[in-house]
Specification:
With about 300 residues, the protein is an alpha/beta fold. Helices cover about 45% and strands about 10% of the residues. Helix 6 packs parallel to helix 10.
Length: about 300
Amino acid sequence: MRSRFSTFLTLFLLMANTLSACSTGPAVSAPSGPRVLAAESFLADIAQNIAGDHLTIDTLIPLGSDPHAYELTPRDAARLSDADLLLINGSGFESWLAPALNTLPGTVTVVEAARGLPFAAARPGDPHFWLDPISAIQYVNNIRDALIKLDPQNKADYAANASQYTQKLQDLDAWVRQQVAVIPAPERLLLTNHESLGYYADRYGFTVIGTILESASTGAAPSAEHLAKLVDLIRASRAKAIFLETGANPELAQTLAAETGIRVVTDLQTHSITPPGGVAPTYLKMIEWNTLTIVKALQP
């Protein structure tokens, strides 16, 4: 009996060693520092500029995905639960995330980057504050404070990085104003896919004359009456272009273009930065790209 037991034990240990040898590479240790997750890529980029080398900011939503209609995966749920700090835009932008937020463990701190920014009276419910770089300074302040609370030993660096990035936003604002100045004020007309460029328009003297979708979300569907009114509006205003974010369905815009002769621009980067080799690999480059695209379409 003892001999059989010894043989069984030897075989068991041999199998265990074999399985260990067949494992995929060495064991991966857990991250040593606090884990920070940002809902959107533009938010992660802003946060990374403040975090510097102290923290790595991960992004929840893949590059190029529409954050208005994103659906969480089981892996996303695990990443949310594992985070120490979750950065979201807030102001109702991530409504799809609300059920998951209600079930997060108490170890996860959730911070709204847009906290403190009021909705404009003319734009109730529009959460696209980040497309105005001066409003994005409030994002920087909120993220800085959140990182300092999470990792107080690096407070001085977070404060310094936030100050430097704020200066970059102010420089960007001056650059945008310079670019936009070539467009005569009466011709600064924006027709967009959905309500997204309102705060950008307010900052730089544009007028949003209409939207294809009657909402700040991409999930709405326009009525035939609304589209007919847009045709009349385009003809009356002599607007030059309809601006769509990358990934938006262009069919309705193309229908309006066929009816009115208006140009359709399909490559604004409004909700996501691009991969490193793309046109907008950072938040700052996103605003630059959108500005150059708008100016090119509207300039005399």
